[in-house]
Design a protein that fits this description.
10 helices; mainly alpha; Arc Repressor Mutant, subunit A; Tetracycline Repressor, domain 2; 229 residues; elongated; single chain
Length: 229
């Protein structure tokens, strides 16, 4: 039964606090976005999923797009904070940093599977300021990964003619885990992350017989990054 005032009576007559109800709305919207797609999901669908009248949803959200922004910000925020801490740790070498970045990314995908799936499929559904915010978050993450790869080239640990493309390849590989990973499958998220890290580091490994590269590696410009996205 739909509840008009935006709260749900509990078994003892208590009502669901607004914060908890807002989370229920988010979870329902995330599930529907994954099942039906963002454009095919209506506000009425979301209201029905949480037992509210359509008008009552606006106690918790401003619009359907606000919910999609929440999905995106949670999806990226889950890994961005970890990667910022890893990159800021100057005691770690580039190889150690990159391994931790890959492992953290795969773990974040596994722990936020629905959000990452919606993120990857519905990224271009946003517009205007909302899209700009999400793009800035994506760009920040790409820059952090590129900085680790560039440092590795500069210190002689990695060899790549194009840091930007190397970073995009790494991110694409990790993001695509959302398409096929299943909890309880043959490999755990930790095992997949470790395997991916080995692949990335083996691919970037510099011939140790060569002198460290003191020249600046090529970094793909933003225009090229946008074209590849």
């Amino acid at each position: 039964m739909a509840v008009g005032d935006g709260v749900t009576p509990g078994v003892n007559g208590s009502k669901t606090p607004p914060r908890e109800r807002g989370e229920e709305v988010y979870i329902a919207a995330l599930r529907l976005f994954k099942q039906k797609g963002y454009h095919a999901t209506s506000m009425q669908d979301i209201a029905a999923a949480v037992g509210l009248y359509k008008g009552s949803l606006y106690h918790y959200i401003g619009s359907k797009e606000d919910l999609l922004v929440q999905v995106f910000e949670r999806a990226m925020g889950a890994v961005l904070g970890d990667v910022e801490r890893i990159v800021a740790d100057g005691s770690l070498g580039p190889s150690a940093q990159l391994r931790l970045v890959v492992e953290a990314h795969v773990q974040a995908v596994a722990q936020n599977l629905d959000a990452l799936t919606v993120y990857l499929h519905e990224f271009r559904a946003l517009a205007g300021e909302s899209l700009a915010r999400v793009r800035a978050q994506r760009e920040r993450y790409r820059e952090l990964v590129s900085a680790v790869v560039e440092r590795g080239v500069r210190l002689g640990e990695f060899a790549t003619p194009d840091v930007g493309i190397a970073a995009l390849g790494l991110l694409g590989m990790c993001n695509w885990v959302a398409q096929w990973y299943r909890p309880g499958g043959r490999l755990s998220a930790g095992e997949i992350g470790g395997y991916f890290a080995d692949l990335v580091l083996d691919g970037l490994k510099r011939d140790q017989s060569l002198e460290p590269n003191t020249s600046s590696p090529t970094v793909s410009p933003s225009a090229r990054t946008s074209a590849v996205e």
